[in-house]
Amino acid sequence: MSAYVIVDTKINDPEAYEIYKAQAKPIAEKFGGIYRTRGGNMDVLEADLWTPTRIVVVEFPDMQAARDFANSDEYAPVKAIRHANADCTLIIVDGV
């Protein structure tokens, strides 16, 4: 069953964040990740619990592949770039 990494990102340094994006994508793809949306236009229809900023959705083959990507040694220094240049909420959720 597919799993999805969903990230809401408030970018604080757009220039540095471009470095993150360029480095993160091939690592996600190595773990079977397919970007389904990456900061595209959105219509927020209800926001009682959360007001999203910039949404990224990456589909992985399963929950373990998503976890393996997020916790990989290869991604760790790239994740540090994201942490230094953006505020994020990141979840992994099972597909249906």
What does this structure look like?
Helices cover 36% and strands 30% of the residues. The termini are close together. The chain has 3 helices and 4 strands. It has a 4-stranded antiparallel sheet. The chain has a single domain, classed as 2-Layer Sandwich (Alpha-Beta Plaits). The mean pLDDT is 97.
Keywords:
96 residues; alpha+beta; Alpha-Beta Plaits; 4-stranded antiparallel sheet; 3 helices; globular
**Contiguous runs where pLDDT drops below 50 for at least 5 residues:** none
The major beta sheet can be summarized as: 4 strands, antiparallel
Rg, Å, rounded: 13 Å
Q: What does the oligomeric state look like here?
A: single chain
- Considering DSSP H and I runs of 4 or more, what fraction of the residues is helical? 25-40%
> How many distinct beta strands?
4
Q: Which fold does the CATH topology refer to?
A: Alpha-Beta Plaits
Give the class from helix and strand content and strand pairing.
alpha+beta
CATH architecture: 2-Layer Sandwich
Please give the domain count.
Answer: 1
The separation of the N and C termini measures 7 Å
| Widest beta sheet: strand line-up | 2-3-1-4
The succession of helices and strands, N to C, reads EHEEHHE
Write down the CATH class.
Answer: Alpha Beta
**What general form does the structure show?**
globular
Q: Helix count? A: 3
Query: Strand-residue fraction?
Result: 25-35%
Mean pLDDT: 97
Give a brief outline of the structure.
With 96 residues, the protein is of the alpha+beta class.
